[in-house]
Amino acid sequence: MNTPPPLETAERLSWNDSLLLGYTPMDAVHQEFVQCVTALQEASDADLPERMAQLIAHAQAHFGEEDRWMAQTQFPALECHVNEHAAVMSSLLEVQALLAQGHTAICRDLALELVRWFPGHADYLDAALAHWMCKQRLGGKPVVLRRKMA
Questions:
Q1: Residue 17 pLDDT
Q2: How many domains does the chain have?
Q3: Which end is more exposed in the chain, N or C (fewer Cβ atoms within 10 Å of the end residue's Cβ)?
């Protein structure tokens, strides 16, 4: 059974306060996303299909929920955000099909690309949505308290 190569810290996605956006439902689903990506990165070759399926199921629910929030509240940047979700889902499904043919390396490459993609997506598109959702539901922007990061 092949195990994944050790990862450098920069190649890992770990949940920390810098990823908090202040909208609790979104922060919770983002923490799950980080766990799914980490599980994919740490999986043996034999476990990659199961971890990939779990990531896809999570992403469908995650992106679907955010897409519904945007539609229900008439979020101004809906189209851009929904399109990015669709592009990521397309990549996930394409890699899942390649993984089924035995291409484990591309699955590991995808996991690394998700590590690189997610912080920027969260910081830009998801942060705007978190602000919008808090304003719609609570009347103002979220307050995010972060521990001092080293």
A1: 87
A2: 1
A3: C
